[in-house]
Amino acid sequence: MLESGCKALKEGVLEKRSDGLLQLWKKKRCILTEEGLLLAPPKQPQPGPPAAEPPAAKSKELHFSRMKTVDCVERKGKYVYFTVVMAEGKEIDFRGPQEQGWNAEITLQLVQYKNRQAILAVKSTRQKQQHLVQQHPGHRLRSASNSA
């Protein structure tokens, strides 16, 4: 379980292209959950007792609520390259081994997240309508009177 309480669905190492001038590929430990993708520094083997999760300051979460799409999938050699497009337009490039299927897994979890949010929105709207009907039993809602 992660700090956010979400179970890790997939964990492994991807390379993320840096934002700097040189745009170097840097290894990141990635943890995919139902809520998003957590990026952390790769695990370093250290002598002594096993270390706990890396400090939150060094971790970055790409939450599905701010993610727009997974795009630009290209296969070259042993790598698959893909771009995560955030809602504000920022694009984050990743690459990883083809056989691990990270791009497909992230896309699948993003779609499932968006579907869950849509279902919650519909349920919320229905609950509000039912609440209005209960408060004003003599009045009909416009949408109900339009369909009659």
Describe the protein in words.
This protein is α+β, with helices and mostly antiparallel strands. Helices cover 27% and strands 34% of the residues. It has helices at residues 102-135, 142-147, and strands spanning 10-17, 25-32, 36-40, 60-63, 67-76, 79-86, 91-97. A seven-stranded antiparallel beta sheet has the order 4-3-2-1-7-6-5, with helices on one face. The protein is elongated, with a radius of gyration of 21 Å. 15% of the residues are buried.
Provide a compact summary of the structure.
The chain is of the alpha+beta class.
Query: What's the shape?
Result: elongated
Low-confidence spans: pLDDT under 50, at least 5 residues? 50-55
- Helix-strand topology string: EEEEEEEHH
Distance between the termini: 50 Å
The amount of beta strand, in percent, is 25-35%
Class computed from helices, strands and strand pairing? alpha+beta
What is the rounded Rg?
21 Å
How are the strands ordered across the major sheet?
Answer: 4-3-2-1-7-6-5
Descriptive tags:
about 150 residues, 2 helices, seven-stranded antiparallel beta sheet, alpha+beta
Topology:
Elements: E1 10-17, E2 25-32, E3 36-40, E4 60-63, E5 67-76, E6 79-86, E7 91-97, H1 102-135, H2 142-147
Antiparallel strand pairs: 1-2, 1-7, 2-3, 3-4, 5-6, 6-7
